[in-house]
Design goal:
With 744 residues, this protein is of the alpha/beta class. The chain is built from 28 helices and 18 strands. The strands form five sheets. The chain has a six-stranded parallel sheet with strand order 3-2-6-7-1-8. A six-stranded parallel sheet has the order 11-16-15-12-14-13, with helices on both faces. Helix 10 packs across helix 11 (220-229), helix 18 (405-420) packs antiparallel against helix 21 and helix 27 packs antiparallel against helix 28. The radius of gyration is 30 Å and the shape is globular.
């Protein structure tokens, strides 16, 4: 195609129904041609699910099997619905309705309200926050802006999960959900809010679904009208359906089964809003004869990125993990994901900015690069680092740090305190700049400990805590700095970040990155406490955090970097650990289960590395390290007493620097894989990852030195010792292994 009108922006409309199927892979074609009965499409990240379902609809329309006006395609965002409508037009199926659940329900409600209820539909409340504030005031509660936002979100969650005010406290307790206020108080505000709506004859966004459900349940004539209009349904992102949306879908369907759903339980990350993957997981139970198609050919990411993504979900637990999809990359090989450890957060941000600048210099457009983090409060240090590096950026899903309301309020308060100087009673009994800042920000909601749970209150605290840390770092860099100096620094930073951001690097939270993709993705701040987030307590919450990281990984097409920092600020104690989700995936780490007591994977229990012999016994056999019964094991780097079995195997803390020979580790790893296949046993039965790491750190030259490494017992020394020593000496281990076998 040479004409501009036949570019990817303006593709040629297929001439025939069969032409609609051109270019689809076998599984996508199976989806497109499965037009009878219930269909469940399990579609992994980057597998072309939107392409499959739009071609399915278009093929049905162009083949005369489906009438365009009888099809309703439902998704979750206006952006996704618009994209679907655009693709359908390009395929010659422009008359198909593609809408969000709320948009489709509102259209029906407006049409049927005069017949079902009479009069005009009540006014739709665009923003419910003000009415929630009035409800709280009636209940004698004063909520600040952030609490108000969180209580409003909680009311929305209650409504989409079909929880009435009276049941709210019990449901919250059963779900182990962190309520923004006492559940009884939230329930009272919720009940009063509903009363205010009735008094003022207004409805909210969730009422649109509830009222549509009510009308379709009570008026069979209206339900029949809707079912005559829409006879075929397609639901995208089905793993994100709420109980209320599922109820509406059931009413639309009636007793028919012309339904196609598309989803991926591995991308369920919105359960806190009421979404649940149960409907996707139970689809085949509800529809025993359903056609099930799995899309696993990943057209987005390189094999290296896909390998990491698969590895993340391979370690998952729970029901959703049983239905995970193993993706198969269809792209050419690319660079390995980079795992980067930094001393502190500023170093991590500066290092990330440098790597981004190098990518841009190498030809990667800034708009094809993203920095993804767990919470919005993490953005500030990256905004500053990118600004200092002269790299344009844009924030997605959040205000720029210095434009956030709480940061602006804090700036006003700090400026006022600086102007008052010693006359501000807030600053009495404070010593030093950080103490002054903490005193001022305590009036804006900052406390020494973070609030429990998530939401706006936590985000506000994180923003204020970032200012406190900035003050600490500023005083460390400029001893004797005053509050006025800090205010001037804040003004300069805010001004520096007002550079044009068109086509800039995207800064976004992991949640707001869902559905997007970039050539290069930097996943930052991957430490325990942030990933998984501190307030994720239950197994289900932890697994959702794992899926959130999976979503982040699968946003990358080619370049992927994962990083963490050992401390918050320069000079702080390096007490952080990288996220557990990367254990067994990043070089030098141990997979869950690789560490065990006697009888499990990893050999015969825990051995001390401090008392191993360095030679052979009198009978010529190697002397094996004996189990130590006295004296604590201590880290050979920092001297801390070790209690973790895996750390004792390495004789160092996981957080302490490793002097591992990475090339040797890779050779040992490859040899172990081959040897495990030969003997028909799991790889850990040869040596665990921890033991390989310990060998690569010690680089033993003799049997005695190898015997002194925990995890290398007499049996394994006799069976694999010669090969390991040969590999440590630079060989491949095969010849030594053959000689050892011949001797045996």
């Amino acid at each position: 195609m040479t004409s501009a009108t036949h570019s990817t922006l303006f593709p040629r409309v297929p001439d025939t129904a069969d032409a609609v199927l051109d270019g689809l892979d076998p599984e996508q074609r199976e989806v497109a041609t499965a037009l009878r009965g219930p269909v469940c499409v399990l579609a992994g990240a980057g597998t072309g699910k939107t392409r499959a379902i739009t071609h399915r609809i278009a093929y049905g329309v162009r083949a005369g099997i489906l009438q365009p006006s009888s099809v309703l395609a439902v998704t979750f965002t206006n952006r996704a619905a618009g994209e679907m409508r655009g693709r359908l037009r390009q395929l010659g199926a422009g008359g198909v309705q593609a809408r969000t659940f709320h948009s489709a329900a509102l259209r029906q409600l407006q049409y049927f309200w005069p017949k079902a209820v009479g009069g005009d539909l009540p006014r739709l409340l665009e923003r419910k926050v003000q009415l929630v504030a009035e409800a709280a005031a009636r209940c004698g509660l004063r909520l600040d802006r952030n609490e108000l936002r969180d209580v409003t979100s909680e009311i929305e969650w209650a409504k989409v999960t079909q929880t009435v005010p009276a049941d709210y406290p019990a449901v919250v307790a059963k779900a182990q959900r962190d309520a923004p206020r006492d559940p009884a108080e939230v329930a009272k505000v919720y009940e009063t809010y509903e009363e205010l709506k009735r008094e003022r004859t207004v409805i909210d966004f969730e009422d649109v679904l509830l009222l549509t459900v009510g009308i379709l349940q009570d008026r069979h004539d209206i339900a029949d009208h809707v079912r005559r209009q829409y006879q075929h349904f397609v639901v995208d992102e089905y793993q994100d359906v709420s109980p209320l949306q599922q109820r509406l879908l059931d009413l639309w369907l009636g007793d028919r089964d012309s339904l196609c759903v598309v989803g991926d339980v591995g991308q369920t990350i919105y359960s806190f809003t009421g979404a649940t993957p149960d409907h996707l997981l139970n689809f085949r139970t509800r529809h025993p004869g359903a056609t099930v198609v799995k899309l696993v050919r990943d057209y987005r990411s390189t094999p290296q990125v896909v390998h990491l993504a698969n590895g993340l979900l391979a370690q998952a637990t729970g029901r959703a993990a049983e239905h995970r999809l193993d993706l198969v990359s269809q792209r050419e090989s690319g660079p390995e994901p980079a795992y980067v450890e930094y001393a502190d957060e500023p170093a991590e941000a500066e290092g990330t900015a440098r790597r981004i600048r190098d990518l841009i210099a190498a030809g990667v457009p800034a708009g094809e690069i993203a920095v993804l983090y767990r919470i919005n409060a993490q953005s500030e240090v990256y905004e500053q680092a990118l600004a200092d590096a002269g790299v344009p950026y844009q924030l997605r899903g959040a205000e720029r740090f210095f434009e956030r309301p709480e940061v602006r309020e804090a700036g006003v308060a700090l400026r006022g305190a600086a102007r008052a100087g010693g006359n501000d009673p807030l600053l009495d009994h404070t010593d030093g700049l950080p103490a002054e800042v903490r005193a001022v920000l305590s009036t804006k909601g900052w406390r020494g400990e973070p609030p429990a749970g998530s939401g706006a209150v936590r985000d506000r605290w994180e923003s204020l805590a970032a200012l406190v840390r900035l003050a600490e770092d500023f005083e460390r860099a400029k001893p004797g700095a005053t509050l006025s100096d800090l205010v001037a620094e804040l003004d300069e930073r805010a001004a520096a970040q007002h550079a044009p951001t068109v086509q800039g690097v995207t800064l976004a939270s992991l949640h707001s990155a869902k559905g997007l993709e970039w050539d290069a993705v930097f996943l930052v701040g991957l430490t325990e406490g942030m990933m998984p987030i501190t307030y994720a307590k239950t197994d289900e919450q932890i697994e959702e955090e794992r899926r959130l990281l999976y979503v982040g990984v699968t946003r990358a097409r080619l370049h992927l970097a994962l990083s963490w920092s050992l401390s918050r600020s320069p000079g702080s104690r390096p007490g952080r650990r990288p996220t557990r989700f990367l254990n067994g995936l990043r070089p030098g780490s141990t997979a869950p289960g690789g560490r065990s007591a006697a009888g499990g994977p990893g050999g015969a229990g825990v051995w001390s590395g401090g008392g191993g012999a360095r030679g052979a016994g009198g009978d010529g056999r190697p002397v094996v390290a004996r189990r130590k019964s006295r004296g604590p094991a201590r880290c050979r780097v920092c001297g801390r007493t070790l209690t973790d079995a895996g750390e004792m195997k390495l004789m160092r803390c996981d957080d302490c620097p490793s002097d591992m020979d990475e090339a040797l580790y890779e050779r040992l790893h490859d040899w172990r894989a081959v040897r495990a296949r030969e003997i028909g046993q799991p790889a850990y039965c040869v040596f665990t990852d921890r033991t390989l790491t310990a060998i690569a750190e010690a680089v033993p030259a003799t049997e005695g030195e190898l015997a002194g490494i925990p995890g290398v017992g007499a049996r394994k020394l006799g069976r694999f010792g010669a090969a390991v020593l040969d590999i440590c000496a630079g060989g491949d281990g095969r010849e030594a292994e053959t000689e050892a076998t011949d001797e045996v």
